[in-house]
Amino acid sequence: MRAAQIHLKHATFMCHPLAKTSYLFSRSAKRQFTADFSPDLISLMQEQDPLHIIQVNKKSYQFFSGWYWLPYCRENNLEKISVIKHSINTNEYIEKRAWSYLLSNELKSSHRDVGLAQMDQLMTKIPKVLRKELLGKLYRPSTGKIVELLAAETRAAVRNQRRKMGPPKAHTTILEKLIGE
Q: Which residues have C-beta within 8 Å of that of residue 44, sequence separation ≥ 6?
């Protein structure tokens, strides 16, 4: 495996045939947060979730994992994308990584009863200056309003989840207890 940056306009990316079922499933799934992110934020998030590829020829690649941000990169005409180039391309290797990528994304998703409230809590933790920079045109002084825009939900839905969830609880790890923090 090798990390790299590839010019999006000078390359062709196609889904690997063994990843197609998982890819199509993920593209049809309804997402909680579906906002219009800035190209800078899309680039930053894609860099942290790179496209996993095998090279077919000089400018043609097949992806099998890390595809979530690819359509957003294309829509926003990003110049380069982050990739992990794999040299192993056995059927088992490709298929296993495609399904584990999808499973990993689903396992990381928020619980439906508190997802909006958790996003609101996250927004309050991000320093305001950084929040403005990350969210660009989606930034609002009210974290609740930001969550409404990100999730296309009503103020009442966000408020109800906040009430259900209650105030954030600090979880102390065993290590923190041992060292007295």
A: 134
Q: Measure the CA–CA gap between 35 and 24, rounded to whole angstroms.
A: 21
Best CATH choice for the domain 2-107 from the list 3.30.70, 3.40.1000, 3.40.50, 3.90.1530:
3.90.1530
List, for residues 92-132, the tens digit of each pLDDT value. Answer: 999 999 999 988 887 787 777 788 888 888 888 888 888 88
Measured between alpha carbons, how far is 120 from 20 in angstroms, rounded to an integer?
A: 34
The sheet carrying 2-7 orders its strands as 2-7, 80-85, 51-57, 60-65, 12-15
CB atoms within 10 A of CB 76: 17
Rounded CA gap, 158 and 62, in Å?
Answer: 40
